[in-house]
Write a structure and sequence with these properties.
By secondary structure, the chain is of the alpha+beta class. The protein contains 15 helices and 16 strands. The chain is 36% helix and 20% strand. Bound molecules: histidyl-adenosine monophosphate. Histidyl-adenosine monophosphate (HAM) is lined by residues 81, 83, 112, 114, 119-121, 124, 126, 128, 130, 258-259, 279-284, 302-304, 306, 308-309.
């Protein structure tokens, strides 16, 4: 039997991992600049956490969750997103309150049973932030600015911030009614999914990507026209702050997010470089979620970035990262005695932060030199019988081809290969 990765999943191969590491490093750095602390939550949670938070009529809950009973019959789900798990962890560990700002971030895999296509996988990775405790519109703007700054740090261009307000408990029913009234006439011409959405969750219709439906959606009422005074004021302030922060945005009054927990601000950062799945980042405010998950009333705002989509853009734009894990020192040995000495020396090198490698394949000296070349080693240190007698090996600088004799006990203390660990792992 030939095994392959499950449909919609992919291996991240050694050629690609330097780019992933660099992206993750940038995320840690930029999130830290904005005072976010990392949180790691389990990959699976009680199913109810997601059905209650994301919404039972959303596509994610209806069709996309990997849900299974454990051996005791408890229903568990591989996390399709991480906002709800973070809220759960905060409540369980008392991390948040209504009078303190708590800022958390995460990086990790998510799981959605979607139809795989470019930009859409069944296992994908997100880096996200969640800020709890403040309803200040300036914080919404800061969160959006953080997304933009992260992409700038990664060298991504041609991105656009789309922003909308989806209102609150007070104004959402007003908008829902306006939408129902508008679509009532035309729903018979729209797709089967939209017909279902019309009955269960009419706002979801705005998210439909089917071309025949789009022409009706484009003329639908905008949520900003149904906002209550408070939401309207909040929205005006968010865009005001974005303006004074110099963040360029576009008001997209058709923007509806695929999760039900949003209130007021909803936004996406989209790339012109991607096809149909063009959102690299999605987020917004969710002021009721903590309370809906049995906590106090604590407002919150956040976003998540789809890392596969970031990688795709970086590959398209040939934004190559220099963080390749290179070997500084390769020790080539001839014979068992030389191998023992070589083994001691690579151990010492690694203890001193110098990346080092030797041969475990019984290769000839010529083949070992070739292997060192393939690894792009800075230096090769050669030990054969003669060198053992002299207690000194031959150090070849692979960049200049210069050779010189270096005693065994001076190789590491001299840092003879002239570089420390070049893989940037500090
Ligand atoms: P989301 O819009 O569902 O939001 O996902 C955020 C990002 O994850 C998307 O913009 C996209 O880049 C990426 N993404 C989503 N699904 C897939 C997929 N199947 N394959 C590849 N990439 C994908 C959330 O998940 C919210 N939890 C974001 C949030 C945080 N809101 C507030 N805080």
């Amino acid at each position: 039997m030939k095994y392959s990765a499950p449909r919609g999943t992919h291996d991240i191969l050694p050629d690609e991992t330097p780019l992933w590491q660099e992206i993750e490093k940038k995320c840690h750095k930029v999130f830290c600049l904005y005072n976010y602390k990392e949180i790691r939550t389990p990959i699976f949670e009680a199913t109810e956490l997601f059905t209650r938070s994301i919404g039972s009529t959303t596509d994610i809950v209806k069709k996309e969750m990997y849900t299974f009973p454990d051996r005791k019959g408890r229903s568990l789900t591989l996390r399709p997103e991480e906002t709800a798990p973070v809220v759960r962890a905060c409540l369980e560990n008392n991390l948040i309150s209504a009078d303190n700002l708590t800022k958390l971030y995460y990086i990790g895999p998510m799981f959605r049973y979607e139809r795989p296509q470019a930009g859409r996988q069944r296992q994908f990775h997100q880096a996200g932030v969640e800020a709890f405790g403040s309803s200040d519109p300036a914080l919404d703007a800061e969160v959006i600015q953080l997304g933009v700054k992260l992409f700038e740090a990664l060298g991504l261009k041609e991105l656009e911030v789309d922003i909308n307000s989806v209102g609150c408990k007070k104004c959402q029913p007003v908008y829902r009614e306006a939408i129902k009234k508008y679509f009532k006439e035309n729903i018979k011409h729209m797709c089967e999914d939209c017909k279902q959405r019309f009955e269960q969750n009419p706002l979801r219709i705005l998210d439909c990507k089917e071309l025949p439906c789009r022409k009706y959606i484009e003329k639908a009422p905008a949520s900003v026209d149904s906002l209550c005074g408070e939401c309207k004021n909040h929205f005006e302030q968010v865009v005001g702050w974005l303006g004074s922060l110099g963040v360029r945005y576009r008001i997209n009054d058709r923007l509806i997010r695929g999760l039900d927990y949003y209130t007021k601000t909803a936004f996406e950062i989209v790339s012109k470089q991607l096809g149909a799945q063009n959102a690299v980042c999605g987020g917004g405010r969710y002021d009721n979620l903590v309370e809906e998950l049995e906590g106090k009333s604590i407002p919150a705002v956040g976003f998540a970035v789809g890392l596969e989509r970031v990688v795709e853009i970086m590959n398209n734009e040939k934004l190559i990262m220099k963080n390749e894990c290179k070997i500084s020192l390769y020790i080539a040995t001839i014979g068992e005695d030389a191998k023992k000495i070589g083994f001691d020396l690579i151990t010492k090198a690694r203890e001193n932060g110098i990346s080092a490698e030797m041969d475990y394949m019984g290769k000839s000296l010529k083949a070992q030199m070739k292997a060192a070349d393939r690894m792009k080693a800075d230096c090769v240190y050669i030990i054969g019988d003669d060198e053992i007698k002299k207690k000194a090996g031959i150090l070849k600088d692979m960049r200049t081809a210069e050779q010189r004799e270096v005693p065994f006990d001076e190789l590491i203390s001299q840092n003879s290969c002239g570089s420390d660990c070049s893989c940037g792992c500090e």
